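I can't quite decide. Please look over this sequence plus structure tokens:

:::
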Amino acid sequence: MAWHDMTVAELATQLKRKEVSAVALATHFLDRLHGNPHNAFLDIQPDATLAQARRCDEKIAQGLAGPLEGVPIAHKDIFVTQGFATTAGSRMLKAYQSPFDATVVTRLRQAGMVTLGKLNCDEFAMGSANENSAYGPVTNPWDVQRIPGGSSGGSAAAVAARLTPAATGTDTGGSIRQPSAFCGITGIKPTYGRASRHGMVAFASSLDQAGPMARSAEDCALLLTAMCGPDPDRDSTSLNVASEDFSTQLALPAGDKPLAQAGKGGQPLRIGVPAQWRGQGLQPDILHAMTQALSQCESLGAEVVEVSLPHAPLSIPVYYIVCAAEASSNLSRFDGVKFGHRASSYADLTDMYLRTRGEGFGDEVKRRIMIGSYVLSHGYYDAYYLQAQKIRRMIADDFQAAFTQCDVIAGPVAPSTAWRLGDNANDPLAHYLADIYTLPASLAGLPCMSLPVGLGDMGMPVGLQLIGNYLQETPLLNLAHRFQQVTQHHLAKPEGV
């Protein structure tokens, strides 16, 4: 088997056994990046990557290897990284070099991972298609005429195309889960606060969360173990919850029906399916793949029950008020004074602000800044932002009521498979509506993931979304892992890869 077809777990094992060196592995993947397939990468620094790989080989030789020593990874260009440019997919930060690493990058490097480069993304993580990047759209490896999803589209496309065995992503309203579903890979967003936001270029601070994207639930468990943990000195929203080894918790009860004892109190694992999620424009091929996957879970001993999330349909207006308000505040720092782009000519300070922001930001970013400024303005704060926060609380309460009836909630990731590039270019509302199934869990701050469950009518991947209660990443990973042990969907890859 070629190295690029191996999982993170398999590569880590080969490296520990010294069956391959970190330098050889890094060189292999760097060779695959020639020509930048799918426009997935924004910055590649071979010298820096190979220097990291050599240090990994030295540590392996000395018996000092970390759990993922020498395994390559690429980072979404929303994480600041020393030695690589960090642009957040924007002209505003073109060629910006950070003097420090994001906490997530630091922790993965401490685990031994080697950075291959920085991955394309929607500008400041604002988008559902990866068409909003200032450096051109990313294409889907399953069909280069289609989008990979967003905003972590570069991450998803790179993993699906076997350009990297793993990638980091960020999820504000579904930006790990939706591109994972569209590209046929596995991705997980942990509970809000599990992974530090220090060094993540901020979009919406009460929603942004880092997470891993890889080929399997087992790989995601290994990566999540390295990424998570308290960071109180750098991130005030970081949870004071001890790090967990999610990979060692993947063991499930033995037998033909392991999920029959995987629920609370040794009862069958109960999978709740929201009644509200069988409509909302859900395409028949998505519903079929989801139904087949749930039937497979039942054959493993799980019990599928219907639950209700009555306020879930309100998640779109709530999300796009809250995230726009926070974006308008966070992006005020990009003014041409402190760092980043500055207009080359201007009349005075106010004109410099206007020209700099007008030149540096793309259309979608401007749109959200204007919406956010409006809903936060005097006379509209109570009518829009405050009401949105109240409904956000109701959405979170709906989940808590549902979890009294089930252990895990399952549903679609998106109403359809990946659409064609440019199909919704002039209709931002169509992009917003595509987030109907991912937004509720984000607003509630719950852990959630996507795993591949087959192909739709056009031969494009379909993902199943799993949502857990707070700090319950392990049941999600266990269910996904067991499903992947008895199915082959996560092993499928695009033609020619």
In short: DSSP finds 15 helices and eleven strands in the chain.
